[in-house]
Design a protein that fits this description.
alpha/beta, Rossmann fold, 5-stranded mixed sheet, 5 strands, 25% strand, B12-dep_deHydtase_bsu, PduH protein, Dehydtase/Dehydtase_re
C-alpha cells in the first residue's frame, strides 16, 4: 500500500453537492490527514455511509454525509448504529478535525 492510499474516505450522497462538504475537507486538511471523496448514488443514512467508509479505510475511520447534510464520523470497531460523533454540515470543519484527531489519538476539538 502506498502513501496515497492511506486516507479517510468521505462517502456522500450524490444529491449533495461536493461544494457543500468543503468545510469537512478543510478540517481534515488543517490536521494534516489525507482524505478521499466518494459519491454514492444509492440512498443510505449518513450512519450507514460512515460505517461503510470506516470499513474501507486503512485508518479505520470514515465519514458519511447524507443528502440532508447530516454527518457522522465512524470507527471500524464501533457498532454501526453507534458512530463516534455526528452532527450537521454547518459544523463540518469541526467534524473533519475530530475525524483527523481520532486517527492521531488527540483530544476532540470542541
Amino acid at each position: 500500500m502506498n502513501k496515497r492510499e492511506i486516507n479517510i474516505p468521505i462517502l456522500y450522497n450524490s444529491a449533495l453537492l461536493s461544494e457543500q462538504i468543503k468545510e469537512v475537507c478543510a478540517g481534515l486538511e488543517e490536521e494534516g490527514v489525507p482524505f478521499s471523496l466518494q459519491e454514492r448514488h444509492k440512498t443510505g443514512s449518513f450512519i450507514e455511509l460512515g460505517a461503510a467508509a470506516a470499513a474501507m479505510s486503512p485508518l479505520r475511520v470514515g465519514i458519511g454525509i447524507d443528502q440532508n447534510g447530516n454527518v457522522c464520523v465512524h470507527h471500524e470497531k464501533l457498532k454501526q448504529e453507534e458512530p463516534y460523533v455526528q452532527g450537521n454540515i454547518q459544523n463540518g470543519r469541526r467534524l473533519g478535525k475530530n475525524a483527523a484527531r481520532l486517527v492521531k489519538g488527540l483530544p476532540l476539538s470542541l
